[in-house]
Design a protein that fits this description.
6 helices, oxidoreductase activity
């Protein structure tokens, strides 16, 4: 996706094994899609700033290619309040523009979408700055 482009409607499963449609997420808050990397630095930073994200009306979703059951186990073991989205067919990952080379990188790839579902900003293979996110 390029800046300003809108999210397509895709049917995916959450860590709770419920189906969600991506367009159903649009409208009430800004969306932060985090393509999970090999390290947990971004997730920890988001957790430390969770209250600030809520105050800024930003809802966080962790996207990866693992099964809903594996995501549930990860979510429970880490105690993270984020919703995990299983994208085993890489539909959302492709739509966002997370290329194959980005899916296995150490840092996470992050996409901020506005309340209308359009891409506002992305951080790809760059140092993620939470203050920049909260200022958007």
């Amino acid at each position: 996706m390029k800046i300003g482009e809108k999210l397509p409607n895709l049917k995916l499963k959450t860590h709770q094994e419920t189906f969600i449609y991506t367009l159903s997420l649009i409208g009430e808050s800004n969306l932060l899609f985090v393509v999970q990397g090999k390290e947990e630095g971004v997730e920890k930073l988001l957790l430390e700033n969770f209250d600030a994200l809520v105050n800024e009306n930003i809802e966080v979703y962790i996207i990866n290619q693992t099964s809903p059951q594996e995501n549930l186990e990860l979510q429970r073991s880490k105690g993270w309040p984020f919703t995990f989205i299983s994208d085993t067919k890489k539909e959302l990952l492709r739509a966002l523009g997370a290329k194959k080379s980005l899916l296995n990188t150490k840092p996470a790839t992050i996409f901020l979408l506005g309340m209308d579902g359009s891409l506002q900003k992305s951080w790809k293979n760059e140092e993620f700055d939470i203050t920049e996110l909260l200022a958007v």
